[in-house]
Design goal:
With about 250 residues, this protein is α+β, with helices and mostly antiparallel strands. Helices cover about 35% and strands about 30% of the residues. The protein has two domains: about 130 residues, Ribosomal Protein L22, Chain A (Alpha-Beta Complex), CATH 3.90.470; about 110 residues, 4'-phosphopantetheinyl transferase domain (Ribosomal Protein L22, Chain A), CATH 3.90.470. Bound molecules: coenzyme A (COA). The site of coenzyme A has 22 residues, from helix 4, strand 5 and helix 8.
Amino acid sequence: MRDAAAKKMSVNERPFVGTVHSETDARTGVRHVRCEFDSAGYQATLYAELGIAMPEAIARSVPKRQAEFLAGRYVARLALQDLAPAHYRDMQVGIGEQRNPLWPDGVVGSISHMDRVAVCAVNHRVDMDYLGIDVEALIPARVCREIATIVATRQERELLSNQGLSERVALTLIFSAKESLFKALYPSVRDYFGFEVAEAVELRLEEQTLVLRLTEHFAAKHGLPRDYVCQFTLGEKWIQSVTCGKFPEPVC
Ligand SMILES: CC(C)(COP(=O)(O)OP(=O)(O)OC[C@H]1O[C@@H](n2cnc3c(N)ncnc32)[C@H](O)[C@@H]1OP(=O)(O)O)[C@@H](O)C(=O)NCCC(=O)NCCS
């Protein structure tokens, strides 16, 4: 079915959609869909072909943005179909007030894209309260030096480098993990919050998890727990982070 859809997109000389891969994470139950895409093969008619509505703001944007938005919404559509095919067949994922995706009732989800890859993670809301995904190309060494102190403190960076991660991998991982946390918590916080609000406090390399801790002040202000486990995958040239879970039941 997906191969057929991908072939249909080859009307352009360069196919827009490449390999599509979907799986359910055994640890969390989260459905992941990842798809390679090629912006050079993008044309606006692909929106109709793939059954994705083009919002006005996207129609006004440059083709590169139209292409990445389409790839993100395409993987979102596939992920929703994985979750419940009959329910979400023609469902569109809208755009919220701060670019946050608007999921159908009963669904929690998140989208990320880099140059040639789009990823989406979804789950049923009854099973999960928050979910954020981020995929990030390894940050070049020069950029690392420029942004290191904005993204993380020296202690956070040392926590990772002390376990053998290079400066680039360490900073990209902290950056990506915090972005996944931002996306996971945005629906609860409903406002922008920066990298200084969370601290990387524990790295378990074998489990591929990084624990992020919110500042006491920020957590109390929004009635949130302080600790979040981010699950990461280290690729050769990219890092993927997923922060997801359930909030604890309130104690009466
Ligand atoms: C919003 C932000 C996280 C997006 O990350 P990015 O690296 O630019 O881009 P990505 O491809 O990974 O993710 C983009 C997708 O994130 C999603 N997204 C954007 N804003 C969002 C928000 N407020 N809440 C949830 N998801 C959001 C969207 O689906 C978007 O894709 P789309 O516009 O095509 O739908 C980033 O631009 C940002 O503002 N970061 C600073 C905030 C932060 O990370 N703080 C750290 C807190 S510890």
